[in-house]
Amino acid sequence: MRKSDYIKQINSFYDKIERNPLSASPVTLWHALMHINNKAMCTESFTVAAPALRLKSGLKESTFKRARTELKEKGYIDYQSRNNNQAPVYQMIELSEGVN
Length: 100
Fold this sequence. Notes:
Order of helices and strands: HHEHHEE
CATH architecture: Orthogonal Bundle
CATH topology: Arc Repressor Mutant, subunit A
Strand order of the largest sheet: 1-3-2
Protein name: Helix-turn-helix domain-containing protein
Shape: globular
Organism: Virgibacillus byunsanensis
Helix content: 40-55%
Oligomer: single chain
């Protein structure tokens, strides 16, 4: 996601959840991920440890895992776990493609 598309991405997120609703926890987690990605200069992929995401989103571990799974299954994010206790690699799915 390009930095210039940050607001478009947020607007597209809300357009999408009108058609494909999310529960509250995934919405909170998505915003935490967007904030982290924005601070990372909107890179294509970024890493962040689960404890940091849980702290930023205010989610407990089990709720965090369910929220992350829901976001992935519904096409809002992708992530890849890594070995040796390394933080997962996250990707924000481009929701604003084709939006003016």
